Predict the structure.
Amino acid sequence: MMTNKKNLLLSALALLLCAGLFLTGCESDTVAPHDDTPELTSEDAAYQAAAMGAASGRFLPQIVEFGLVNKDAYSYDFPAQGSDITGTIYFDFRTGGADGTPAAYDVANWGQMNTADGSPLSFAVGIGGSIEVAFVIMADLDQESDTATILEGSGGTFTAGAYTASFSFTDLVVTAGEAYPGSGSMTFTTSGFVLTVTFDGDHTAIVALDGTDMWVVDLDDGSLTELS
């Protein structure tokens, strides 16, 4: 069931990217590679933020799912079975925080997960398109509940075609075996727009721009609905 949910998220990601018309390679993209990069509208920015919200559900749980699958030397190579993600993520587990003692993943109460410099995760979407996501994620780990609380300072970059954005997380909680963040938010900054994506543990999230323009994103089917 978890695999099905993740496949749904990837399908949603492809729909969000192509619907936003900002990723070279989507069938509906009318911007040729040699054309000037068009300015984003607020709705285009919302599609980008929603796509990053959907993508985060694909990699964030890995920090608490490390012991659930075979991984080597505190790194994990995508693609997993049925995945359209390529790349490698690396782990550092400790007790006592970032300056604490290195520990095995199953006793640690702090962890870091990151991509290597110049080697982001690549999500295949649309027709011949992709997005690239690079990140450093730090989290407090609760071994008993298999949850991670993402800490301040965690975030990274999102690249889609000619567009690059940054993202960071606030009080985000992820649980092993769950496809969606349980709570918390992501701040997404792109082309002068600052958006917030708020999660509540189910298949929807709220995308807000400046606290006024708001949308609901369905992380299963990729639809984005403006709130009046």
Summary: Residues 2-30+39-227 form one domain. The radius of gyration is 17 Å. Residues 57 and 180 are 5 Å apart (CA to CA).
